[in-house]
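Task card 7
Instruction: Convert sequence to structure tokens.
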Amino acid sequence: MKSYFAFHGNVVFPGGFVQCVRWAVSETEMGIELIKIAMARAGEANARIIAEVDAEGFQFVSAGRVIPIKRLRELACPQSA
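Output:
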């Protein structure tokens, strides 16, 4: 099972891949310059950035940066932290 997170700054949107892409596109339409999408596999401690969305469109990223899942979950659900 995979989890996806779309994020910029301290704003994180967890969901499925298509949901994250749609959210990222809507954020770029509201003026956010760059949104990154990370994927995490079940049981792993880190998520890897797999795509970026900006005003020009969607682009997959090869060898993306690694981000701790704990950090993404804390930002996505601050009340549970």
